[in-house]
Design goal:
With 68 residues, the chain is of the alpha+beta class. It has a single domain (2-67), classed as Hypothetical Cytosolic Protein, Chain: A, CATH 3.30.1230.10. Helices cover 44% and strands 21% of the residues. The protein has three helices and three strands. It has helices at residues 31-39, 42-47, 53-67, and strands spanning 2-6, 12-15, 23-27. Strands 2-1-3 form a three-stranded antiparallel beta sheet. The longest helix is centred in the last third of the chain and has 15 residues, at 53-67. The two termini are 18 Å apart. The mean pLDDT is 94.
Length: 68
């Protein structure tokens, strides 16, 4: 499972350590789940706010960059 965090100041990012402060949402560690996260705008629902497309793109970059 991967943890996506929204900090108190509104930053949203992948938390590979699982220990970053903030509200967390979990997603499976799979490329298909990352694609679904973006296509269904699941972070908007999890964090009850409009999440910019740049955040989704950043999460994809981080995920696929880590996977190599």
């Amino acid at each position: 499972m991967l943890r996506v965090v929204k900090t108190a100041d509104g930053n949203i990012f992948l938390d590979f350590s699982g220990k970053a402060a903030g509200r967390g949402a979990y997603i499976c560690d799979d490329a298909g789940c990352i694609a679904k996260l973006k296509s269904k705008r699941m972070l908007d629902k999890a964090f009850s706010c409009k999440v910019d497309d740049k955040i989704y793109a950043s999460i994809e970059e981080e995920y696929f960059g880590r996977k190599g």
